[in-house]
Amino acid sequence: MRMPVLQASRLRADDRALISMELQRFFSFPWNLRLCFLIVPAIWLSLWQHVPSPFVPIFGALFIGLEPQFCNIFFRTANEFEALSVLPVPWPRIVLAKNLSTILITLICLPIISIIVLFFSPDIVPASQFWKAALYLASVIFPLLHAGNLQSLHHPRRRMGWEADDLAGGLLMACTVGVLSLPYLILVEGVGAPVLCLLYAGAGAYFYLRHSVHQTARRVIEARSVLCAAR
Amino acid sequence: MRSPVSILEIENITKSYPGRQQVLRGVSLRVDEGSLSGFIGLNGAGKTTTIRIIAGLLTADSGSVMVFGKKIQHSDPEYKRCLGFVLDEPLYFDWMEPGEYLRFVGLMYGLSPREAERRSSELLEFFDLAGKKGDLIRTFSTGMKKKISLAAAVIHKPRMLILDEPFEGIDVLAARTIKEALMMMVGRGMTIMITSHVLATIEKLCSHIAVIHQGRVILEGKTADVKRHARDRAQRSTGEQTLEELFIDLVSPRMGKKPLSYF
Q1: In angstroms, what separates the C-alpha of B107 from chain A's closest C-alpha?
Q2: Which of A133, B24, B30, B181 could cross-link A55 (Cys pair, CB 3.0–4.6 Å)?
């Protein structure tokens, strides 16, 4: 039987503390400034006539800016993995709390970046674009969390900042987002079946909750020595 | 007379790191309830690796670790509710204020928010950190960081506390506060296991000692017995040697050093 994981219906005090700690940390670290820097090229790209929707650069800036949040979940600070390891909290709860906080941060940052980028847009963005943006986010977020969890295990970075590893992480994130966008492009832009896209998003969420969280937690236990040796 | 209850039992654990020779070569160790046990050895002897295996940061290649008579399973961290750890690298989130950090750790150990708040205030007071409530931990000195690590390790009132080099890099005042805290805790029935290079402190504090050398525990027992055995092994029959002198004799018999040619 699977270990119980955090559920909205019974969010415990330790889950709430983990999530609020994650949120608090996000807003207190300078590497989050990269998100601010990425808004500039996002505005510039949104004005380019060949870009089909201003949401393309918005999501690009959002996901690349939040790369450490998705892809380095165990080392947002240098000793975090060790600090969490000695606590009596099962890894599935930690992984889920971290991922949930990432979703919350995405939902906080997306409207902010959108407002800034769309402010500079010369055209009025039709409502259908907002609907498509919501569909896109729903289809991509859970697969991206899964990919980020695996990336966090295989290529942990103990220190984050403005170094080559961080740049490489950003580029890899751009490629990953590109690949994970294909189902949306096929189902919505190609086939024109947003319902299928919603079903895909639901399947992604189901897979994430049923398998990804537990798989990541299991691999954390197996890969502790590698994670502890991360530089 | 009742034999003492063993809280921690390590049976024949081995550990190798990739590309390095075996760090632990069959370590066996036992820590009795209510004791203050010192775990001493040279750098690289295997002390930290042993402690990281108990803490669940590393997996032993073979052997077992029993806590409260139960073999630990790293997939089930419940056993950590009864333990507190102060590892060699301080385990804090240094972007937090000390009170915030202690409350966070308290909640992780299942304390109610009110109780976590109460205990964190009391601990800050006890460790003379109440005046630093509003500062971030990253601005603290090494001694203050050690104190906050210790405070976090005991906020849930563990039955056993494991400390790796708690006296390294700290001044005498901080060391005294930590020593007093440890004595107070052991007096209240807590079991403590401590590693340190400061052998004078270990000798003074600990009722039991285990000596690890080249990945094996070579001596273990009550402090007086260990000293007697060490004296016998070093073939010293007279005089009262300190633990440090005996330890040096034990792990590194004196050999004549060739003097430096330019001195």
Answers
A1: 5
A2: A133
